[in-house]
Specification:
This protein is α+β, with helices and mostly antiparallel strands. It has 3 domains: 263 residues, Bira Bifunctional Protein, Domain 2 (BirA Bifunctional Protein, domain 2); 97 residues, Anticodon-binding domain (Rossmann fold), CATH 3.40.50.800; 62 residues, 2-Layer Sandwich (Translation Initiation Factor IF3), CATH 3.30.110.30. The chain is 35% helix and 28% strand. The chain contains 14 helices and 23 strands. The strands form 6 sheets. A 7-stranded mixed beta sheet has the order 3-7-8-14-11-10-9, with helices on both faces. The protein has a 5-stranded mixed beta sheet with strand order 16-15-17-18-19, sandwiched between helices. Helix 2 packs antiparallel against helix 6 and helix 2 packs across helix 8. Bound molecules: 5'-O-(N-(L-cysteinyl)-sulfamoyl)adenosine and zinc ion. The site of 5'-O-(N-(L-cysteinyl)-sulfamoyl)adenosine (5CA) has 22 residues, from strand 8, strand 11, strand 14 and helix 8.
Length: 468
């Protein structure tokens, strides 16, 4: 491979997606992908981790239909205004025009909240929290990119209703914590959480928080969001409950979703290197690959080594690890190249000398470091995996921290864009925001003061970036 991802990230990225067997991008509908074993496995691991955490804090799994009736989708006006350009409509059944067209879900607030109004009667029914992992459909008009901007993409969406505004706000905080665990603890991806400016909120939300990470080309990628919806939807969908003292009130809601596709894109882009994928051990489809090194090829030697290799595999498998033996006829060098490209965290090499000494040689994918372990020390692999994860996380954090710039004037602002996160100032005026957003996005308007990079008037501090 030996492709430098920093120099041309897009070429590197497409090549890795294809060669590592993550995706097949030749599906003949724009913005739609075929997920292959390697990519799907990683997504399923993220999904498993997230669903467990959501269910631990009281979310019930559910599965809603992919079609939404026109009437339901269009109930909340801000919401539909935000999505109407992006909705795929089903208009026909065979040759007949449907009486009412049906939408492919772009997100599931509207159908779910129809049901919430049936499910919620009393304060004792609250909080109600549900989640589902599904694909959603948005007719994106911006340039589509695999995993990053698709017209079909995979996510988990969580939806909650609480009896109080405080309950909803606390839920959003809890979700931010869970997403932080998924993104940074589990996937080793650093991210900033920002409250989006008014004009960039989710359609129908009171408040939107977003997780942004930094891709190798200097553009930021929004990987997940959590929205406080207040009572906007509950008023429209009539989600009312009887309070403890016999009154009636509308529920306070929140909705949230990380994009599995974007998380996978970030994982690949941030940890990968010139040889291809580099996977954090917890999500790697194969965590250890064992390569038998056979010199003499006498039947006796081959059998002995293979037997030892199987013993090593059994030992590692008994620890719950995913292990593969590559006993193919390829040359060892070709095998190394192949598994490195696939991002397998640990390679073990076992030759006649290792067999005699009862040990294995291992090479770390992330650092290339080579060391030995005795058969009896194989339990140390778990510790090595923790070390690999910590090191990937630290490297990515250092890189992202080194790409945060604080600027004052406009020329400085413009030249920092595309290199990472840029802190600057904005007066609050529309003309200045428009000027800034010609080349960048304002990720957040902070509470601290700042001097406008465009007009020089006092205002508030902002964070801006070139975004995907
Ligand atoms: N209903 C809410 C929360 S579930 C919602 O739809 N929020 S969203 O519009 O912000 O989308 C959630 C996340 O999906 C975004 O933060 C972004 O990371 C991801 N996303 C949005 N559009 C795409 C797309 N076209 N391809 C891949 N991921 C996307
Ligand atoms: Zn200004």
């Amino acid at each position: 491979m030996e492709l430098m991802k920093e120099e041309d990230f897009s070429i590197w990225y497409h090549k890795v997606l294809e060669e590592a067997g993550i995706l097949d991008m030749r599906y003949p509908i724009k913005g739609m992908l075929i997920y292959r074993r390697w990519g799907l496995f990683i997504i399923r691991e993220m999904q498993r981790f997230l669903e467990k955490r959501l269910e631990d804090v009281g979310h019930e799994p559910c599965l809603f239909p992919v079609l939404i009736s026109e009437e339901v989708l269009e109930k909340e006006t801000d919401h539909i205004a935000g999505f109407e350009e992006q909705v795929f409509w089903v208009t026909h059944a065979g040759k007949n025009l449907l009486e009412r067209k049906l939408a492919l879900r772009p997100t599931s607030e509207t159908p779910m909240y129809e049901s919430f109004s049936l499910w919620i009667r009393s304060h004792t029914d609250l909080p109600l929290k549900v989640h589902q992992s599904v694909s959603v459909y948005r007719y994106e008009t911006k340039h589509t990119r695999p995993l990053i901007r698709g017209r079909e993409f995979l996510w988990n969406e969580g939806h909650a209703a609480h009896a109080t505004a405080r309950g909803a706000a606390e839920n959003v905080e809890e979700i931010k914590g869970i997403y932080r665990e998924l993104i940074t603890d589990f996937l080793c991806i650093p991210a900033l959480i920002d409250r989006r400016p008014e004009w960039d909120k989710f359609p129908g939300a009171v408040e939107t928080y977003a997780f942004d990470t930094l891709m190798p080309d200097g553009k930021t990628l929004q990987i997940g969001t959590a929205h406080n919806l207040g009572q906007n939807f509950s008023r429209v969908f009539n989600i009312q409950f009887e309070t403890a003292d016999g009154g009636k009130e509308y529920a306070y809601q929140s909705s949230y979703g990380p994009s599995f596709g974007r998380l996978l894109a970030a994982l690949i882009g941030i940890h990968g290197d010139a040889k291809g994928l580099v996977l954090p051990p917890l999500v790697a489809p194969v965590q250890v690959v064992i390569v038998p090194i056979i010199f003499k090829k006498t039947e006796g030697e081959v059998a002995q080594i293979l037997e030892y290799v199987r013993k090593v595999k059994d030992r590692l498998s008994s620890m719950g690890l995913r292990v593969e033996i590559d006993a193919s006829d390829k040359r060892p060098g070709d095998k190394y190249y192949f598994w490195e490209m696939k991002g397998v965290p640990l390679r073990m090499e076992v030759g006649p000398r290792d067999l005699a000494a009862g040990k294995v040689v291992y090479a770390r994918r992330d650092t290339g470091e080579k060391k030995e372990l005795l058969f009896d020390e194989l339990s140390q692999v778990s510790g090595i995996f923790e070390d690999i994860a910590a090191s990937l996380r630290r490297k990515a954090e250092e890189k992202m921290n080194a790409c945060q710039f604080a600027v004052k004037g406009y020329p400085e602002f413009e030249s920092a864009l595309g290199k990472g996160f840029v802190s600057a100032g904005w007066c609050g005026g529309k003309a200045c925001a428009d000027k800034i957003e010609e080349t960048a996005s304002i990720l957040s308007v902070m509470d601290e003061p700042g001097v406008c990079v465009v007009c020089g008037k006092p205002g508030k501090a902002i964070r801006a970036a070139k975004t995907y």
